[in-house]
Specification:
Elements (H helix, E strand, L loop, with lengths): L22 E4 L8 H7 L3 H15 L12 E3 L8 E7 L2 E10 L4 E11 L6 H17 L7
Parallel strand pairs: 1-5
Antiparallel strand pairs: 2-3, 3-4, 4-5
């Protein structure tokens, strides 16, 4: 499924392209909540486009052909099994929290945050991300195509 938002440029991959590694999907929590979708829709069109383009590049070039760095890292603690994608734009750090689903070839966007580059996130964020990641793996629920 390819999700279309005004801020997101046309993807370079088609959903059934054999060269594509993962499809980017939005996680659906409960009946109608998509936390990552709400996050990206709250960003400016420019920031949303840059962040989603960055996510698409990672999903389509897996495994990463470079060492993990500050832009992609696995999470620990209550969010173990999840990863974060970071993109710094000026003094802001935009993050997507991701769960990889190798079985279904999905790069699932769970939630997102924006914070100043020097601020720490509270532990509640990582507990929420862990809960979303575990729920996704139990239900495999994603946003319906629009």
């Amino acid at each position: 499924m390819w999700y279309s938002l005004k801020a997101i440029a046309k993807p370079k991959w088609k959903p059934n392209d054999p060269e594509r590694v993962f499809d980017v999907e939005f996680y659906a929590y409960g009946d109608d909540e998509q936390p990552a979708e709400a996050f990206i829709l709250g960003l400016s069109n420019e920031d949303a486009g840059r962040l989603f383009g960055f996510v698409d590049n990672i999903a389509s070039d897996w495994p990463l052909r470079r060492s993990e760095g500050t832009d992609w890292k696995p999470l620990g603690g209550p969010a173990k099994g999840c990863h974060e994608v970071r993109l710094r734009i000026w003094k802001k750090l935009h993050r997507f929290y991701v769960r990889l689903d190798g079985e279904r070839r999905r790069f699932v966007l769970l939630d997102g945050e924006t914070k100043s580059a020097d601020a720490a996130l509270p532990a509640t964020v990582y507990r929420r991300v862990g809960r979303f990641g575990n729920d996704y793996m139990a239900t495999r629920r994603i946003s319906p195509p629009r």
